[in-house]
Amino acid sequence: MLVKWMRCTVVDRRGFERGQRKWAGLLGEPGFRGQGGGWSRARSGVAHLFGFWESRAFYDSFMARSHDRLHASQIGTYKDMRVRLFEYRFDVKTGFSPVFTDADLLRVAHCRVRDDRVEHFTLMQEKVWNPAMAGSPGMLRGLFGQADPQNEFLVLSMWDTAAEHGKYRTERVERLALRAQIGADVTAIAGDVIDLEPSWTV
Question: Please, which pLDDT band fits residue 59 given cuts at 50, 70 and 90?
Fold first, then answer.
């Protein structure tokens, strides 16, 4: 599965949200699995969207045919669009599916990893971070994805409430980071917490 992460700064909120409804047209696209997103809690006016496709081939076909028509109504409503593509590697918890209807909150972490530490970083995600997140009340599901170049990773998790995500962060993250030796693996890490906007879900 291919994961597309889009982040932008919205300059015309009403126009952007109106345009966002046009993406319902994705539903007829071959290989399309789902899309959702919302507003950053930390950065005013920043929107995040995550789209899911069965494969890169289906995604490339959509980009060549239908993307510009669906996108036309949003032109001029945002700036600083950043798009990254990741290949799904494995679930965080079990049975990931791109369903947003039961979640209130998304957490995204974007990690750049030292070339010689990619294997260790991936192993720690499986052995340390995944069990901790999977055991946290309120964590619904998530995924671990890898970009090309190979040393760039995405961890996306869905939570039923902000309060549950807050408890997980307060209680566990520092201890887990030490155990996973994250300082030795990662050259840069950025993240955000996103309030889901139900009307953007396709």
Answer: very high
Q: How many other β-carbons are positioned within 10 Å of the β-carbon of residue 182? A: 19
Q: Where are the beta strands (DSSP E) in the chain?
A: 2-10, 32-40, 46-53, 78-92, 105-113, 139-146, 152-159, 186-196
Residues 6+ apart with CB under 8 A from 19: 71, 73, 74, 77
Separation between Cα atoms, residue 138 and residue 134, nearest integer Å:
9
CB atoms under 10 Å from CB of 69, counted, come to 10
Kind of pairing between the strands at 46-53 and 2-10: antiparallel
Q: Write the burial class of residue 14 (CB in 10 Å: 0-12 exposed, 13-18 middle, 19+ buried).
A: exposed
Q: Cα–chain-centroid distance for residue 140?
A: 14
Separation CA 49–CA 6 (nearest Å): 5
The answer to whether 176 and 132 have CB atoms below 8 angstroms apart is yes
137: pLDDT strictly greater than 90 = no
pTM over 0.85: yes
User: Chain-centre distance of CA 58, in angstroms?
Assistant: 19
User: What pLDDT band is residue 95 in, cutting at 50, 70 and 90?
Assistant: confident
Task: Identify the residue with better confidence: 94 or 49.
Answer: 49
